[in-house]
Amino acid sequence: MTAYPKTAALMARGAEFLGTEHAVLCGAMSWVSERNLVAAISNAGGFGVIACGAMTPELLDAEITATAALTKKPFGVNLITMHPRLFDLIAVCARHKVGHVVLAGGIPPKGSVEAIKAFGAKVIVFAPTLALAKKLFRSGADALVIEGSEAGGHIGPVSTSVLAQEFLPSLAADHVVFVAGGIGRGEMIASYLEMGASGVQLGTRFACASESIAHPAFKAAFFRANARDAVASVQIDPRLPVIPVRALRNKGSDEFIAKQIEVARKLDEGVVDMGEAQLEIEHFWAGALRRAVIDGDVESGSLMAGQSVGMVTREEPVTAIMAELMGDCEAALAGR
């Protein structure tokens, strides 16, 4: 018998979809959501997701193998839709019989959803508008994550609370919908479940877990920060389709502005086309994030964090974080 009966009842559809005890996904955080954290979250009853990011197919193959050695519970893989070798990465997931693939970073390219479903996996997508969400479901998506601007990393312009009010009444009765962005406590999870969400996704709350390989300096920056420190990046040139990124303000924020000016100049000179320009921006973030997460360069590296960072105050095991979230959610539901 579950220790969280009311929570389990409201999460039942999401948990069944994921094959987990709790319908709690960990957002895919590049360099952070690797084998150790992913396996720990799955072992704790949640759903870990490998952040493929800019990995080659060979690296993804090794990461899936290593993760499977650490957990027998379900976990997923997050693939970036603009990756130049997306279909090769999908083939790697197929060989490993990955059960769930998350497509992030843009509209899934033609044939990608079909390629994933062909080997029996479930497809989870993101959508910034209700119309696009409905279109993606018609195109074969199995579940949706609505992620508000409070989230860390790449973000849209609308808050989680507004997206939930817009999307859930129209979609929750017939579809699996997870809510993400700015969630740091169980009471908030309870609210979204009562609105009809099948589950939730959290990233920032898990980034500094004991099992996270993030550098101690990276974690210390999170412990010092509050919500106001997690700011969205600024788009310098309207021609550059730069998706805003939320991170803790530091010297790296200024360096990103300089990088955009540099890439815009290359566009002017015809050195790169628009696709190459976008990839340069993505590679900047991948490199800056690695410097922060792996090397501990918290000055010029990218400290991607959601506005819930103020609720991350100490290093804890994933099991303790999950127990607190579920316990607070259950208490909130029981008191209503």
Distance between the termini: 22 Å
Question: What fraction of residues sit in β-strands?
Answer: 5-15%
The CATH superfamily label of the largest domain reads Aldolase class I
CATH hierarchy, class of the largest domain? Alpha Beta
The CATH topology of the largest domain: TIM Barrel
Content-based structural category: alpha/beta
CATH architecture of the largest domain: Alpha-Beta Barrel
How many helices? The count is 13
Regions with little confidence, pLDDT below 50 for 5+ residues = none
Helix content: 40-55%
Tally of strands = 11
Strand order of the largest sheet: 1-9-8-6-5-4-3-2
Which of globular, elongated, flat, extended, rod-shaped describes the shape?
globular
Report the mean per-residue pLDDT as an integer.
95
Rg, please?
A: 19 Å
Summarize the helix and strand pattern as letters.
Answer: HEHEHEHEHEHEEHEHEHHEEHHH
Largest sheet: 8 strands, parallel
Structural domain count: 2
